[in-house]
C-alpha cells in the first residue's frame, strides 16, 4: 500500500486524507461557486462526496499516485484537492495513457494564488513520478480561471471533448524533457 507523500509549499501542505477531513471536503463539494464549472455543476450529496473522497484512498493504494488534500498552513483548514489520477474516463477523444491533472479549491481560497502554488508543487512532483509523460486535464469551456492556471503550467488546448453530456476542453502538457 502506498502512503500519500506530503508536499509543503510556502503556504500549503499537500497531503493524504484522514476521516477527520471528510466534513471539510464535503462542504467544498456543496459550494455552488465551486461546482458551477466542474462535476456537472450541481453540489454533491454527502454520499457522492464520500464516494469521491474515499475513492482516492483506493487510487493511491492501487496506483501509487492520486489527489492530495490541500491544507492551508496558517489555519490548518482543508481548502481543496489536487493531483494526478487515471479516472478511466469514458470520454471522446480518449485520455488513455496520460496521467490526468485536476484541482478544486473552496470558494474561500479563490483569488489568493493557492491554485497556482499547489499546481506548481504537483507539476514538479508528477514530473519526477512520471518522467517523459504527457499529462492531460479536462476543463469546462467556461472555466476561465482553471484554463489560465493550466496554460500557466504548460498545458495547451488539444481540442474539445464530449463528457457526461457536456463539452469540455482537453489540455495536454508535453514532457518537460522529451526523448
Notes on the protein architecture:
β1 and β2 form a beta hairpin. The chain starts with 6 loop residues before the first strand and ends in a 6-residue tail after the last strand. The chain is α+β, with helices and mostly antiparallel strands. 31% of the residues lie in helices and 27% in strands. The model has no long low-confidence stretch (mean pLDDT 94). The strands form two sheets. The protein has a five-stranded antiparallel β-sheet, sandwiched between helices. Strands 6-8-7 form a three-stranded antiparallel β-sheet, covered by helices on one side. The chain contains five helices and eight strands. The longest helix has 18 residues, at 46-63. The chain has helices at residues 22-30, 32-35, 46-63, 114-129, 144-152; strands spanning 7-8, 12-15, 67-72, 78-85, 100-105, 135-140, 156-163, 166-173. α1 packs across α3. It is globular, with a radius of gyration of 15 Å.
Give the topology.
Elements (H helix, E strand, L loop, with lengths): L6 E2 L3 E4 L6 H9 L1 H4 L10 H18 L3 E6 L5 E8 L14 E6 L8 H16 L5 E6 L3 H9 L3 E8 L2 E8 L6
Antiparallel strand pairs: 1-2, 2-3, 3-4, 4-5, 6-8, 7-8
Helix pairs in contact: 1-3
Distance between the termini: 31 Å
Order of adjacent strands in the largest pleated sheet: 1-2-3-4-5
How many strands?
8
Largest sheet: 5 strands, antiparallel
Write the H/E string, N to C: EEHHHEEEHEHEE
Helix amount: 25-40%
Give the averaged pLDDT, no decimals.
Answer: 94
Radius of gyration: 15 Å
Tally the helices.
Answer: 5
Low-pLDDT runs: none
Please state roughly what percent of the residues sit in beta strands, choosing from under 5%, 5-15%, 15-25%, 25-35%, 35-45% or over 45%.
25-35%
Class by alpha and beta content: alpha+beta
Give the CA-based shape. Answer: globular
Amino acid at each position: 500500500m502506498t502512503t500519500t507523500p506530503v508536499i509543503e509549499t510556502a503556504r500549503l501542505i499537500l497531503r493524504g486524507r484522514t476521516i477527520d477531513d471528510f466534513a471539510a471536503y464535503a462542504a467544498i463539494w456543496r459550494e455552488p461557486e465551486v461546482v458551477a464549472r466542474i462535476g456537472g455543476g450541481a453540489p454533491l450529496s454527502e454520499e457522492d462526496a464520500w464516494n469521491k473522497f474515499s475513492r482516492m484512498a483506493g487510487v493511491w493504494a492501487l496506483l501509487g499516485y492520486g489527489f492530495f488534500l490541500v491544507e492551508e498552513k496558517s489555519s490548518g483548514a482543508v481548502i481543496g484537492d489536487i493531483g494526478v489520477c487515471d479516472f478511466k474516463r469514458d470520454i471522446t477523444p480518449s485520455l488513455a495513457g496520460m496521467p490526468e491533472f485536476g484541482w478544486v479549491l473552496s470558494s474561500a481560497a479563490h483569488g489568493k494564488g493557492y491554485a497556482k502554488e499547489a499546481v506548481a508543487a504537483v507539476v514538479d512532483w508528477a514530473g519526477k513520478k512520471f518522467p517523459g509523460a504527457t499529462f492531460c486535464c479536462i476543463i469546462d469551456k467556461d472555466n476561465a480561471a482553471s484554463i489560465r492556471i493550466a496554460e500557466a503550467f504548460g498545458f495547451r488546448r488539444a481540442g474539445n471533448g464530449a463528457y457526461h453530456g457536456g463539452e469540455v476542453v482537453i489540455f495536454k502538457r508535453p514532457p518537460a524533457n522529451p526523448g
